[in-house]
Amino acid sequence: MKLNMRFATRVNKILSEEGISAEEFATMLELNTKYVRELLTGNRVVTKEIVKKTAEVLNVSVEELVKSDQKPGTDIEIVHLYGQFDSRQGRRAIDEMKFLINNYMGLLERKEKLSKDE
């Protein structure tokens, strides 16, 4: 699930549980109601500022609003809250990150094996 939809789903659930309307939420965030409604439907790009402010206003952690539901051991999902990639740059950056992580994990495994052999 993409960050925008994951954020919208989690925030809507919290608002529903707390009985807070979109208009009230917009006032709490000091944002335009139309903009907040677009955030709550997943039709707006979520920025790090919005995530942080939402976490503060709703008294939850940032992680709770954006964490991935993927289980460990599956493909890694990288959430980048400091800007947006275009799709080609994003795929390239993710592929490079996976490559580096896999190499690092391989080095750790080899180091562990060598220390067991000694």
UniProtKB/TrEMBL annotation:
InterPro entries: Cro/C1-type_HTH, Lambda_DNA-bd_dom_sf. CDD domains: HTH_XRE. GO terms for molecular function: DNA binding. Signal peptide: none annotated. Residues 17-65 form the HTH cro/C1-type domain. It comes from the Bacteria. Pfam families: HTH_3. This is Helix-turn-helix transcriptional regulator. It comes from Vagococcus zengguangii.
